[in-house]
Amino acid sequence: MSNAIVPLALLGSIGSSIAGVAYGVSTEWKFLGLKKEAPPAPVVTTSQATIFGENDLSASTDELIVGAGEGEEIYSSIGAEAELDEAGLYKTSETLGAAGEDVTTLDRLAGTPITCGETEDGMTTGLQGFMLRHGDDNDKYYYGCASLDEPGNAQLGKYGKQGNSDQGRVSGLSGKSAICGTKQAMTSFVLHPNRSGSKVQYKYDCIDLKGPTKVRTATTRYSRYNEDEDLKSLADAALDIKCNNEELLQAFGLEKSGNNIRYIYRCVTPGYEED
């Protein structure tokens, strides 16, 4: 395994105008370098199909392993995980824009990009999770970035499926998702409405991972959603997306079922080696 560090400047990142890349599913899997027949199709619930798509293997809670290419000896791995404070919140944060009579919840989220840049040592970082909190004076996104040894190429300017914004309310996020590929991790995201604000989607960036990876899908608990409180309702629910220390965030989407909301998300373990 190479110990060389490959710094990658994510220039342009969220501001990139590169067209989105469709997410596809391979019909073959490589387990630690050995090509085998595809496993049986995972069971997909209606809610998961809405978030990730019926043909997307992220809808399965099974752990999948994608092997390295033939002769590949360089592995991506996590150099240092994201830092948490004593309250269990990620130390990096962004304050949402001020609320106003003509400013919707989705306007505020769209004005707050979450971006993992480079460390002082020039190492590329990827998201491990994010949290939204409501305060008396402001609302904040807290998010964590982990450094990567041996990252691959950046995949910038991807777009999630566009849909109705529900007049800018949190419920407009239902069914919208950001999905990196099975051998990728997310480096940044921002909510992206159209000019009129009637439609919304996620715009996001991904980084390729080298070597075998393992992915898993998780959900937050369901929490009561109150439209009258909207963003406060989402923030107070503390629906934290938080991958483990050895994992990076790969995909997420919000699901609304009746008056309840939750996040479905996917984490990836880079440089995975089976015991």
Helix-strand layout with pairing:
Layout: E1 28-31, E2 34-37, H1 46-52, E3 64-66, E4 77-80, E5 92-95, H2 105-110, E6 114-115, E7 125-134, E8 139-149, E9 151-159, E10 163-164, E11 177-179, E12 184-193, E13 199-209, E14 213-219, E15 223-224, H3 231-236, E16 241-242, E17 248-257, E18 260-269
Antiparallel strand pairs: 1-2, 3-14, 4-8, 5-8, 6-12, 7-8, 7-16, 9-13, 10-13, 11-17, 12-13, 14-18, 15-18, 17-18
Report on the structure:
With 275 residues, the chain is mainly beta. It has helices at residues 46-52, 105-110, 231-236; strands at residues 28-31, 34-37, 64-66, 77-80, 92-95, 114-115, 125-134, 139-149, 151-159, 163-164, 177-179, 184-193, 199-209, 213-219, 223-224, 241-242, 248-257, 260-269. The protein has one domain. The protein is built from 3 helices and 18 strands. The two termini are 17 Å apart.
- Shape annotation: globular
Low-confidence stretches: 1-46, 57-62
The sequence of SSEs as H and E is EEHEEEHEEEEEEEEEEHEEE
| Biggest β-sheet description | 6 strands, antiparallel
Distance from first to last alpha carbon: 17 Å
Radius of gyration computed on alpha carbons: 18 Å
Number of strands: 18
Instruction: Provide the domain count.
Output: 1
Number of helices: 3
Q: What structural category arises from helix and sheet content?
A: mainly beta
Mean pLDDT figure: 80
Strand content: 35-45%
DSSP helix fraction: under 10%
Task: List its salient traits.
275 residues; mainly beta; six-stranded antiparallel sheet; five-stranded antiparallel sheet; globular; disordered N terminus
